């Protein structure tokens, strides 16, 4: 087969589920192929460590110590990975390829996806044309950003 290492960026949207379905359709019959399902947690969506120890009014999070903060980060990543694993388990449908669920923290979804493409030798990205965002339009900002920032082919699906 031509594509051996497919990335499906996953944000829990129906579009991303369609993308997984299509990726498994492409790679499913090939035991040597791999599909990685990746959720990126934008660090802006997490509590800011510079707020540690400042328990004043308006501080959204007061976290006692760095070890607690580390544990919080770990559990956020683990939960996202478990959510991705759940959708993988529901979608496998007898696929013979390897399927892995992953989650990373990054500055932005686009950056996290682009870094993953490079570091995991991805040769095709299959992603939703839209995601969880409420705005209507041709294509979401994450899809647009990924199209601009990776060198491998990107298949966008509805
Ligand atoms: P916007 O976020 O710009 O309001 P949107 O949510 O409709 O618009 P995108 O966020 O671009 O559209 O989502 C398009 C696809 O990008 C999703 O179907 C999914 O494949 C991927 N995606 C979006 N956010 C993430 C994320 N945090 N982690 C991994 N993949 C993501
Ligand atoms: Mg979005």
Summed up:
The chain is of the alpha/beta class and 158 residues long. It has four helices and five strands. The site of adenosine-5'-triphosphate (ATP) has 22 residues, from helix 1, strand 2, strand 4 and helix 4.
Radius of gyration: 17 Å
Strand adjacency order, main sheet: 3-2-1-4-5
Query: Helix content range of the residues, please?
Result: 25-40%
C-alpha geometry: globular
Mean pLDDT equals: 90
Summed up, the domain count is 1
What report would you give on this structure?
The two termini are 24 Å apart. Helix 3 (109-119) packs parallel to helix 4. The protein has a single domain (5-157), classed as HUPs (Rossmann fold, 3-Layer(aba) Sandwich), CATH 3.40.50.620. It has helices spanning 14-27, 66-91, 109-119, 141-149; strands at 5-9, 34-42, 98-106, 124-128, 154-157. The protein is built from four helices and five strands, in the order βαβαβαβαβ. The model has no long low-confidence stretch (mean pLDDT 90). Strand 4, helix 4 and strand 5 (154-157) form a beta-alpha-beta unit. It has a five-stranded parallel beta sheet with strand order 3-2-1-4-5, sandwiched between helices. The longest helix is centred in the middle third of the chain and has 26 residues, at 66-91. It is of the alpha/beta class. Bound molecules: adenosine-5'-triphosphate and magnesium ion. Residues 11, 131-133, 140, 142 line the site of magnesium ion.
């Amino acid at each position: 087969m031509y594509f051996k290492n497919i990335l499906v960026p996953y944000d829990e949207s129906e579009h991303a589920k369609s993308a997984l379905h299509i990726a498994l359709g492409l790679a499913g019959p090939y035991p040597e192929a791999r599909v990685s399902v990746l959720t990126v947690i934008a660090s802006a969506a997490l509590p800011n460590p510079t707020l540690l120890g400042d328990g004043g009014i308006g501080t959204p999070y007061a976290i006692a110590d760095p070890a607690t903060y580390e544990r919080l980060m770990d559990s956020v990543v683990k939960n996202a990975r478990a959510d991705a694993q759940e959708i993988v388990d529901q979608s496998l449908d007898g696929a013979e390829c390897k399927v892995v669920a992953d989650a990373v923290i990054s500055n932005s979804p686009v950056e996290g996806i682009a870094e993953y493409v490079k570091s995991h030798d991805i040769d095709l990205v299959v992603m939703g044309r839209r995601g969880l965002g409420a705005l209507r339009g041709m294509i979401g900002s994450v899809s647009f950003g990924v199209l601009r920032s990776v060198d491998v082919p990107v298949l966008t699906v509805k």
